[in-house]
């Protein structure tokens, strides 16, 4: 029994020694989730010395420190413990989920690899990790601030966000770049161009600072409730004094890389009041003038004139529809040509939008163009206002009359004579003819004769069917609106293709095409557009989630492209994606 006991102990000792002799090579990170303005430390540890260490390619990170090598030797209870570590300090380039791939090393002739590690990079955090010393001084002397003009606007009321970089007098900035751009998912946004960075003097929390304005953005909220403005994140190089001076007495500066964020802001968007809201309100918010004009008041039939519906002033001019023109049925009206002459400044949109209709009268007479009403929400009085156009009259001087009344005068009503029946009344009508054509065959009862005789009997039912379909189509107001929006979507998509060399015009036209397509298919107005509602409505129509995500992604690209550099290839790719996505959704929609 004692022999067996000793054998068991010896076996356990050998097994323990074998396990302890195993080679370990692994990657460890300081955290798997961090903000875009934080730093990540990654250590590659091994329990035996090796050669030919190959780190992974940190494509999605900037290496701000390392590699640092450390070796640890220790003895515990007569056993040697060895650890060798390669350390790197990384700064993420952008948000998202990224994978740090395998590192390799050669130990005792064998190649060992680490496991890949997935890192989740989120939006900037308020208290990022950082280095001590110069980095702390830089953090105290550099501040990125987002100034919001109004935190409780109405739906579709313009607000501005101005991003300022404050720098203390004893600190300098040598260069900067935008690391993470804010996304305004629930806003219509327009970036205001800044020509040159002018250094100005100001105060930050009661202390004297210098500052520059980096970005100005105009926002129109498209959704009510608490909306979050994502922060702007910058990578900057800060020049911090070391406390030492050169031989000429000038302070010696050291450069410190630093990531700063403006922090997130919340805007509480108020809904427009329901009390007093007009039934024909289309979402116009601001201060507007409204008029309807015609190019002619007198003309002849089949000549044309133009009627223009025009709204001018200050407000969300690009975000609502103009009222429709209503004319008598005797006037033929063509689809309107929409024009926008709008400038977006820091105070919001200003300018004019109009719909111009071409009208062609068919008959002689005087035709009134009824009064058209336009309503909007006035921000100054916080109430709804209505403007009515003047009634116009189109006088058609020459042309056919619309109807002729055949009435018998009293003179034509003479004394009726008695009718005497005659059995041979139709005897003078010949039932046979000697007419001949060029072929010398009788025309009467020929194929051509019967064709001409029977054609009206077949044509009349067809004409009635076409007429009924036309009346039904004309009466389908909703269908006509959808067909119009569909046509406008194709028009704007065509305009986007023509503007591929102009980034601003291209993305404005592309966004309009997507919006008009949604109006046509989902029957929603511009003021109702938000990501959640679009996703919900498309899901209800049995659209595949992949196509919904693609559609939302294109809309976000249109917003983002207004203030980021875009290449020609990216614009072409966005156009192709938009055309493909609209086509795919059109096949799936129910």
TrEMBL record:
Signal peptide positions on this chain: 1-21
Origin: domain of life: Bacteria
Keyword Transmembrane: yes
Residue spans crossing the bilayer: 448-466
A Pfam family this chain is assigned to: BatD
Assigned keywords, A-Z: Membrane, Signal, Transmembrane, Transmembrane helix
Entries under InterPro entries matching the protein: BatD
Keyword flag Transmembrane helix: yes
Protein name: BatD family protein
Origin species: Winogradskyella vincentii
């Amino acid at each position: 029994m004692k022999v067996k006991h000793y054998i068991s102990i010896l076996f356990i000792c050998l097994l323990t020694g074998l396990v302890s002799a195993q080679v370990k090579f692994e990657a460890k990170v300081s955290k798997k989730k961090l903000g875009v303005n934080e730093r990540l430390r990654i250590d590659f540890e091994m329990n035996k010395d090796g050669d030919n260490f190959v780190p992974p390619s940190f494509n999605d990170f900037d290496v701000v420190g390392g590699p640092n090598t450390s070796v640890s030797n220790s003895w515990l209870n007569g056993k040697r413990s060895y650890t060798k570590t390669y350390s790197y300090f990384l700064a993420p380039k952008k948000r998202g989920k990224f994978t740090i791939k395998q590192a390799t090393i050669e130990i005792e002739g064998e190649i060992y690899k680490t496991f890949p590690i997935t890192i989740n990079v989120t939006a900037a955090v308020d208290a990022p990790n950082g280095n001590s010393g110069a980095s702390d001084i830089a953090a105290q002397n550099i501040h990125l601030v987002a100034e919001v003009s109004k935190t409780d606007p109405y739906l579709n009321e313009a607000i501005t966000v101005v991003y300022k970089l404050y720098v203390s007098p004893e600190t300098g900035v040598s260069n900067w770049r935008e690391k993470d751009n804010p996304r305004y998912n629930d806003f219509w946004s327009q970036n205001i161009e800044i020509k040159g960075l002018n250094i100005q003097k100001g105060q930050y929390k009661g202390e004297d600072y210098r500052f520059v304005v980096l970005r100005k953005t105009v926002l129109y909220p498209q959704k009510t409730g608490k909306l979050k403005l994502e922060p702007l994140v910058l990578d900057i190089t800060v020049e911090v004094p070391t406390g030492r001076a050169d031989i000429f007495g000038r302070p010696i500066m050291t450069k410190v890389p630093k990531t700063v964020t403006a922090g997130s802001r919340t805007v509480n968007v108020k809904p427009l009041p329901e009390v007093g809201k007009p039934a024909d309100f289309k979402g116009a918010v601001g201060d507007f003038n409204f008029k309807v004009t015609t190019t002619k008041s007198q003309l002849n039939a089949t000549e044309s004139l133009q009627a223009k519906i025009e709204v001018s002033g200050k407000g969300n001019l690009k975000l609502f529809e103009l009222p429709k023109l209503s004319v008598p049925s005797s006037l033929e009206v063509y689809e309107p040509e929409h024009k926008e002459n709008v400038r977006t400044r820091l105070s919001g949109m200003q300018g004019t939008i109009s719909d111009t209709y071409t009208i062609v009268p068919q008959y002689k007479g005087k035709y009134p163009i009824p009064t058209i009403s336009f309503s909007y929400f006035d921000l100054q009085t916080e109430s709804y206002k209505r403007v009515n156009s003047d009634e116009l009259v189109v006088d058609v001087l020459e042309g056919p009359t619309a109807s002729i009344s055949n009435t018998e005068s009293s003179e034509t009503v003479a004394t009726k004579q008695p009718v005497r029946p005659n059995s041979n009344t139709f005897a003078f009508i010949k039932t046979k003819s000697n007419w001949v054509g060029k072929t010398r065959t009788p025309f009467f009862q020929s194929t051509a004769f019967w064709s001409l005789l029977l054609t009206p009997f077949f044509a009349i039912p067809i004409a009635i069917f076409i007429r009924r379909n036309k009346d039904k189509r004309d009466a389908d107001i909703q269908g006509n609106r959808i067909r119009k929006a569909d046509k406008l979507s194709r028009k704007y998509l065509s305009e986007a293709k023509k503007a591929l060399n102009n980034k601003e015009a291209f993305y404005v036209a592309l966004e309009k095409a997507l919006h008009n397509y949604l109006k046509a298919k989902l029957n929603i107005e511009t003021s109702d557009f938000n990501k959640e509602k679009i996703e919900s409505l498309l899901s209800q129509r049995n659209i595949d989630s992949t196509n919904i995500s693609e559609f939302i992604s294109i809309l976000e690209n249109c917003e983002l492209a207004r203030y980021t550099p875009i290449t020609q290839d990216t614009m072409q790719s966005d156009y192709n994606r938009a055309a493909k996505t609209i086509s795919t959704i059109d096949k799936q929609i129910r």
